[in-house]
Amino acid sequence: MTAVSVIGLGTMGQGIAVAAAAAGHVVAVFDQPERLEGCVRALSDRFARYTANGELKITAYGVLGDAVRGAEIVIEAVPEDLGVKHELFKDLNAHLDPAAVLATNTSSLPLDQLAGPVAAPERFLAAHFFNPAELIPGVEVAATPRTAQESIDRLTTFLHSCGKEPILVAPRAGFVANRLQLALFLEALACVEDGTATAEEVDAVIRRTVGFRLPAYGPFTIADMAGLDVYHAILGVLQTEYGPRFAVPERLQELIDAGRLGVKAGAGFREYSRSDAADLVGRRDALYRRLAEALA
């Protein structure tokens, strides 16, 4: 059981608090006094939906120092604004326990910039939850070069205890998920703007085709199963039609030149024995059938 403080009770802060409380941790939350009653009411509703019959046990504060007193892990979920977060971190310097880990839920801001006013950078890192935070299992975890390994270990242990899967990524702007998500969004918008499909049709294509695969496999495994030579050929057509944003990447060309065409060649982005390939296809088909049934 860990003493956790969640700072900011907007959409993300509420979900993080629900996940921590449902896992049995001691949870304190903070927001501005004039917002606190409404935020706690919304938080209680979310907890009830998530747990069905659990009793929400949190302590809500309108005073920052009271909210973080004795906290082992503090997670900030205030608005995605560098100035707002910096002001919060300056205030927290006077109140945090000397051993407390401070995690930011930023989804895009570079950690080296965020860390500027933090008094103990060795205990500062990112824990990027996804909305709704109580339901989405993955959490991107990123550390600066000054973050102590102990802080990373303590945060990931806490996340595991909440039923989450911490995924370590580099402290780059947007991490991984938002770079991919926004790249997809921009191309989806381009499809609408050039008349290829309506917004509703694009949503349907994603839900029922490429997006259908993603709960089971990431883009590299999907590419290996499709065949990297197939991707190469498609990119050639798309580059001719739409320009250099679809140019064949150097890394893909190197793999093809080396004969690493994917599962069918025994190697692509990964290595595959014959039994690996057979197991992968069998598991894929079983997972896709279950997904189709669940989404029917």
Automatic annotation (TrEMBL):
Cited Pfam families: 3HCDH, 3HCDH_N
Domain of life of the native organism: Bacteria
Protein name (database record): 3-hydroxybutyryl-CoA dehydrogenase
Pathway per the UniProt entry: Lipid metabolism; butanoate metabolism
Protein's organism: Kribbella solani
Domain 3-hydroxyacyl-CoA dehydrogenase C-terminal: 174-272
Residues of the 3-hydroxyacyl-CoA dehydrogenase NAD binding domain: 4-169
GO biological processes: fatty acid metabolic process
E.C. code: 1.1.1.157
Keywords, in A-Z order: NAD, Oxidoreductase
Presence of keyword Flavoprotein: no
